[in-house]
């Protein structure tokens, strides 16, 4: 019986130590100088403050790496309209840019259709693709790394 309790205690201790925690914060930074280092995060739910003389330390859950949970929406193209959305047969793309490519991908990232946008108003035939949610990526052929993604519903 003692052996069983010992083995269970070891398993629980090893299992408990193997779990990693993650913290999602609104901001944070790390600084290092000759005599000290400082690492901080904002937006933590659990913190504790310790005071000794003139020194004060507030600590909580903290990670040394950051995981971003959002991406700023950057609009590269001045004017793009996609309609109708939801669509049945054709999708119309109106834009001031005429040197674009498009890639229509399904919800698991497979490209089901692609082509070029060579007119300011262009129709794309989507009647042959299955109903569902798609993403259309418009990419500039003249300005590298400039693309924009739109959600499309096919009925």
Q: What does this entry look like structurally?
A:
It is a single chain. The chain is mostly beta strands and 155 residues long. The protein has 2 domains: 22-70, no CATH class; 80-154, Macroglobulin (MG2) domain (Immunoglobulin-like, Sandwich), CATH 2.60.40.1930. Helices cover 11% and strands 45% of the residues. It has 1 helix and 11 strands; from the N terminus they run αβββββββββββ. It has one helix at residues 2-18, and strands spanning 27-32, 37-42, 47-52, 55-60, 80-83, 90-95, 100-105, 111-117, 121-125, 132-140, 147-154. The strands form 4 sheets. The chain has a 4-stranded antiparallel β-sheet with strand order 8-7-10-11, with no helix packed on it. The protein has a 3-stranded antiparallel β-sheet with strand order 5-6-9, with no helix packed on it. Strand 7 and strand 8 form a beta hairpin. It is elongated. Residues 17-21 have low confidence and may be disordered.
């Amino acid at each position: 019986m003692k052996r069983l309790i010992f083995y269970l205690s070891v398993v629980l201790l090893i299992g408990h130590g193997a779990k990693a925690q993650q913290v999602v914060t609104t901001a944070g930074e790390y600084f290092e100088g000759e005599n000290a280092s400082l690492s901080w995060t904002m937006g933590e739910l659990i913190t504790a403050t310790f005071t000794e003389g003139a020194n004060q330390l507030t600590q909580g859950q903290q990670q040394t790496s950051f995981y971003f949970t959002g991406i700023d929406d950057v609009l590269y193209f001045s004017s793009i309209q996609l309609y109708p959305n939801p669509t049945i047969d054709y999708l119309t793309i109106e834009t001031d840019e005429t040197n674009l490519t498009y890639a229509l991908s399904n919800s698991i990232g497979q490209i089901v259709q692609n082509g070029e946008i060579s007119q300011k108003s262009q129709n794309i035939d989507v009647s042959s693709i299955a109903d569902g949610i798609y993403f259309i990526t418009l990419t500039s052929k003249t300005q590298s790394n400039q693309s924009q993604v739109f959600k499309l519903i096919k009925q």
